Amino acid sequence: xxxxxxxxxxxxxxxxxxxxxxxxxxxxxxxxxxxxxxxxxxxxxxxxxxxxxxxxxxxxxxxxxxxxxxxxxxxxxxxxxxxxxxxxxxxxxxxxxxxxxxxxxxxxxxxxxxxxxxxxxxxxxxxxxxxxxxxxxxxxxxxxxxxxxxxxxxxxxxxxxxxxxxxxxxxxxxxxxxxxxxxxxxxxxxxxxxxxxxxxxx
Length: 202
Hints:
The chain is α+β, with helices and mostly antiparallel strands. It has a single domain (about 20-185), classed as Lipoprotein localisation LolA/LolB/LppX (outer membrane lipoprotein receptor (LolB), chain A, Clam), CATH 2.50.20.10. It has helices at about 1-20, 20-30, 100, 105-110, 115-120, and strands at about 35-45, 50-60, 65-70, 75-80, 80-85, 90-95, 120-130, 130-140, 145-155, 155-165, 170-180, 195-200.
């Protein structure tokens, strides 16, 4: 009986900790109109292991600027209608319709008002240290990501893990987050540089 009581107590004590990740996601989406942060990204699969870092800015709904500084410069901008991907080394710009691309990148996913709740089934995934985790499974089989995990602390997103349909695992850690900073509208517009090759994506 004592063991049963202790087990029940442990279960009851675990409920608040394990019930807060989705609540923090909802608070993050509703309270965060703009966001700036630094990020470190690790992409791994059987054959590769790539690290990158840069900065992120978001202005809801649908506007974002994801800038890679290392190991090479690349800029991804969503202006509300069009997704622009600029590879400086290749001098190439890829242009896509933002509606079709929304959810196909972490930045686009975060910039949507309810993209996660609309397109994914959310489940609590427990607590690790000070971070509350949730898992998100796509409702449609043709979604870019097979699985997503998001970690929150103090109503701020601190980490994401994404597994795509090719088996690549992407882990992104956010730091120096600023919630609702004043961001210039020009940060979310893009004009292809003179001489750059512009191609249309799928």
